[in-house]
Amino acid sequence: xxxxxxxxxxxxxxxxxxxxxxxxxxxxxxxxFEFDGRVPRYWLDNxxxxxxxxxxxxxxxxxxxxxxxxxxxxxxxQIQDPKLKEEVRGFIGQEAMxxxxxxxxxxxxxxxxxxxxxxxxxLKALLDAVRLxxxxxxxxxxxxxxxxxxxxxxxxxERNDIRDDMDExxxxxxxxxxxxxxxxxxxxxxxxxxxxxxYVERTAYLVVSTAMLGVMTTWFTGRMMLNDRSNFSLTGAxxxxxxxxxxxxxxxxxIPSWLEYFKPGFHPWDxxxxxxxxxxxxxxxxxxxxQYQNGNRRTLQ
Length: 301
Fold this sequence. Notes:
Elements (H helix, E strand, L loop, with lengths): L47 H26 L8 H30 L4 H15 L4 H24 L1 H5 L6 H13 L3 H8 L4 H29 L6 H12 L9 H6 L13 H11 L17
């Protein structure tokens, strides 16, 4: 299993619109993951609640990442920094790849009898309502949700116990996704800053976006558990809740990072965890399907 540690430092402040470290490359890569009968039904710690929660997050990704792309793309014409322009291009491509790979995973969830299409319709209705907000507010929502996904990515790459609990058929997808979320964690934020986003906008929408994400994830998890109620275990559910929200839980341990977003002058690269990218990237590239070994630049439309 892959193990690593990281340190907290901040890259030098520059006058450029992009504050992503120069050694971090934001390039899309199609992986071609396949999910077949080898994937156990409860692939995370053999736990009913944990597995359904992660499946629910996967269902959120295709529609959610299309929203992120649209929110950033709306301001692409206002970006002056050539480096940030290139990073926006990479961000769009990476989000496209995430969508495609999670569509493949979501088919596996669908094959278990889960109402994926109905959940995607519910999510699309919510995001269509969010699209009625002013464009910069949509970008603030994107920044907030990118902060949350970056926190989760950092946790997954830092904590050996979380990765080790994943079945080996699922671990590469989530590690790869975490690597790319780390690479582009500041792109939407840097665009927001360049187009005049305010402290009030970004912090207010973190609260709103966290609530929306919590409600949708809980709702989707609940629907899956209802469909799978014959396998419900009170002991297993309690264990899953403790693993998420107990002492050093996967979600409870994210609270300090979540609060960092409220600091005036916050930037996603305040914590330079680029070392994690280097530690994992070469190993995860071994999982690229042969047909995608030379890369894939397809983007979301």
